[in-house]
Hints:
By secondary structure, the chain is of the alpha/beta class. The chain has seven helices and four strands. The protein has a four-stranded parallel beta sheet with strand order 2-1-3-4, sandwiched between helices. The longest helix is centred in the C-terminal third of the chain and has 23 residues, at 213-235. The radius of gyration is 18 Å and the shape is globular.
Amino acid sequence: MIIEDMTMPEFVAGLEKTRTVYIPIGSTEEHGPHLPLSTDTLQAVSVGRRLAERRCIFVAPAIPYGVCRSTCCHPGTLSITTQTLKALVRDVVVSLYRHGLRNFILLTGHAGGTHSAALIDAGEELLERFNDLKIAVLTEYQLAAEEGRGLIETEGDTHAGEIETSRMLHSHPHLVRGDAAREFPRFPKGILVRDKRKFWQGGVWGDPGKASAEKGLRIEELVVSALDRFVDHLESWVE
């Protein structure tokens, strides 16, 4: 049940079937010279829509902004603060809670450490506020890497490389502009730098040359299946 496409009566009827909602969280962030800035958001949305084809679940409108520290100097990246992300997520969850939802899956297509930590912080605060709320924070990339580990050839592939390029070649091939070179950033260990592009020029972390639409399809299927199982686990979770 795609919330943004539903009418008010359809939303009410949906509450009779499930109290679980999937909230896709992405980013507007560089993904090399070949992938769109919306890559993280598109992946999270695609997985949610595929999940809704398998089971009865609400899918909320995507949040297309994230905390993007490593890529903040790359053209096109729009980064928000951790405080803004936490406040936005809290407000969305509280609004959905007031309308009757009780089980929340926050799945982020952007895997930045600070970004993910902000989502976990928001979730912890919501747990303290509502006694009957269940909430989970998952990283779409981690699911893809774990579920597709037998398919992925590039060690350490994380951003705009084999995994994400394969995903986009499958789900949004018209948005893939050519290819990109294999690249890994060279950030100095432990030292914070102002000009991040100096150490990560192309914005790729992995090997896009190993990507294929066939891999993307298989990885997406594995991720959706893993999420389907996870929803069962969350809905039956008792502390």
